[in-house]
Amino acid sequence: MQAEPVPGDVAGNATTAARLVARAADAGARIVVLPELFLPAYHPPTLAADPTGTDVVAAGDRTVDDPRLATLSEAAAAGGVSVVVGAAVRHPDGRRTISSLVVDRGGAVRAGYDKQQLWGGERDLFTPGTRGATLSVDDWRLGLGICYDGCFPEHGRAAAVDGAHGYLCPSGYLAGSAHRRDLYYPARALDNTMYVVFANSVGGTDPWRFNGGAAVYDPEGRTLARGADTGEELLVVTLDPAQLAATRAAHSMLADRLPDQGSARLSLSG
């Protein structure tokens, strides 16, 4: 999925998300992935100036009860789909995180995963998450990452070692970053012989202008579907358990990996 949110308009962006979720459900989707920080929009000046207006509040059990998200909850329940959508989340202990909310098929909302690898100026506004997360949908185990998390091979590998069949990575890639955008995520797919779903925003204004390119990669890193660099797009792809099993049988990196990759190393000179 790729779409353009409006900075600071959580209710309006939730309504946009609801419209997209309804379209996806009509196309047969079982899970919908929207971009990083989609609800408030990835716009640091607004996130810094109005944290009360841009954030949603999570309870101690990580549930989120925010009337601005009602349209999104209703769309998920009506379509019988699970939704992963980016938000700025305020926790009971005062932490503020870049998170993926998970809206279940009944419309209940919870803070599913908090971004662990913060990028650049995000560190001035947010606290990093402290643990990974895996979402189960039907018979699929899907590791959760957010943007810069996916730049670290260890993050995707941790999901795969935990039994993930796929890796969902909502992101906020800016114009000018297409080379990295198009390299990291198929690499994570091949590294771990798992599907990777990459969502991104579009639109905005410099320096916060986003470059789309939403994509789904198969377990060998091949592109199954791809969005343009501009414009709203919905990509619907069927994940194939037989292809996953065949790829993992043919390319057994996960099974063959050494428990110790060489913590004690030789020092050589030439």
Q: Strand tally, please?
A: 13
| Coarse structural class | alpha/beta
Q: Sketch the topology as an H/E string, one letter per element.
A: EHEHHEHEEEHEEHEHEEEEHH
What do we call the CATH topology?
Nitrilase/N-carbamoyl-D-aminoacid amidohydrolase
Could you name the ranges where pLDDT drops below 50 across 5 or more consecutive residues? none
How would you sum up the major sheet?
8 strands, mixed
- Overall shape: globular
Name of the level-1 CATH class: Alpha Beta
Annotation field: number of helices: 9
Secondary-structure arrangement, i.e. CATH architecture: 4-Layer Sandwich
N-C termini distance? 50 Å
Helix content: 25-40%
**Computed CA radius of gyration, to the nearest angstrom:** 18 Å
The CATH superfamily is known as: Carbon-nitrogen hydrolase
Q: How much of the residues is beta strand, in percent?
A: 15-25%
The tally of domains stands at 1
Mean model confidence by pLDDT: 97
